[in-house]
Amino acid sequence: MCACCAFDGDLLDAEPGKLAFDLDRANSENLAVPAGWAGVEALLCCLGGPELPDWLEEDWRNAGTIYRPQESWSSADQI
């Protein structure tokens, strides 16, 4: 299932923080991922605004990880 479904109501209780975490980790581990998921990542950046990296870090800490969001989450033009 495409992660974009989280934005059109196909998924109930969508978790954008988890989606961002999964994309962030995948981008770190596989160089081919950005080619297919850059649009989703850019959409999250645009929806989250400039506070997104701080929000993601807090959300991820609450989920029990010490992983920090990559710099690209601060602006869609960095993707």
Strand content: under 5%
Whole-angstrom Rg:
12 Å
DSSP strand count: 0
Query: What's the rounded overall pLDDT mean?
Result: 80
Distance between the termini: 22 Å
Count the domains: 1
Spell the H/E element sequence.
HHH
Shape: globular
Q: How many distinct helices?
A: 3
Residue stretches low in confidence (pLDDT < 50, at least 5 long) are none
What would you call the quaternary organization? single chain
Residue share in helices?
Answer: 40-55%
Overall SS class = mainly alpha
Major sheet summary line: none
Topology:
Elements: H1 16-29, H2 33-48, H3 52-62
Helix pairs in contact: 1-2, 1-3
Any overview of this molecule?
- This protein has 79 residues and is mainly α.
- The protein has one domain (19-78).
- It is 52% helix and 0% strand.
- The chain contains three helices and no strands.
- Helix 1 (16-29) packs antiparallel against helix 2 and helix 1 packs across helix 3 (52-62).
- The radius of gyration is 12 Å and the shape is globular.
- The model has no long low-confidence stretch (mean pLDDT 80).
